[in-house]
Request: fold
Amino acid sequence: MAGLYFHIPFRTARRSYDDSYYEVVPDEQRLNARLTQFVDALSTELKLYAQDYAEDEPVRTIHAGGGRPSLLRLRHIRSLLNTVLNVFDASTFEESTAEINPEDATRPYLSGLRNVGFDRLSMGVLSFYPDDLQHLGAPHSPADAVRSIRTAFNVGFETLAIDMAFGWPEQSIERWTDNLQQAIDMGIPSVTLLEWQPDRASDPNKESEAAENENRVRRARMLKVANELLEEAGYTPYELTHFARPGHESAHLRNIYAHGSYIGVGPSAESFWWPGRDEERSATRWTNIRDVDRYVSLLGNRYPPIAYRQTADWISLAREYIFLRLRTHEGLDLSDLRDRYGYDLLSARSALIEKLVKNDLINEPDTGCIRLTRSGRLLADGITERLMPS
Reply:
């Protein structure tokens, strides 16, 4: 299974909660010109990759994300999807997701997304409280969020994921709990937890180490509250920060966390591809340049806009696989890790595994699979690093 990711790197203003690469284009006339150039470059990039990868695997998922992908006009989206259908094998296609901002979620736009083939939305709601949204610098209001959710359901989107932000010092756990409860009460089928992180590089009033540690503990407690509340409401954490009711998980994300192939197009987009996965333990990873003008210029001359490319060895791949699978609800398949990646975790880390089981951080591996417990999920990074090959 292969996924396609589109990175749309434009916003009309800077946003503190968005750490992806984007360019601010506040003037609408200039934005229209930028979008036209950019969509042409995206189409060219898709065609270049199709020459090398289209015959390897069919495309099964599309995810349009970035800074503010809902700035794309419907004609742009229709053109890009037509390019995909013309140059890739989409015979087993199963999911198409569009990220959208509440302020862009008008009924005509959402209906247009449905009509061109999108069946899943990911919406940056962030909070249902105005002071939270003001703190985050979000351009929409709670009323915009509620309206956009209702409109998405009304035009036929059955699967809707919303981002809910948490973790800044002024946010109380009671407010966080209430935000999540509102999402549950509205019948949102999928919730993504978006952890706020301070911008240390630009913050002149850096917190003391003690204050930073205190905030880290608060964020861990808020994550624990979210896990308990959402699981009790029938959501499964199919990944550490992605919760969904049955049948509403993101197939695109599940492919990534299964270590599947995917191609990213657009500035800063990342790609990962298995060439002959069953024949050799090697895969290629590459990242695009982080500059819109350079990106458009290179593709105007039909040059791939790649900044970095790496062929990963088996140790790197085994480490990636452990990292990805331990973040999932299904967990890490030990026989797959041994047979495909050449790493026998039970033999290499037997004493550590026994200790983690005893401390209720992972399950007993007698099923052939290691999964983090609810307590273990709160310490996922540390546990994962200790289980990896050197």
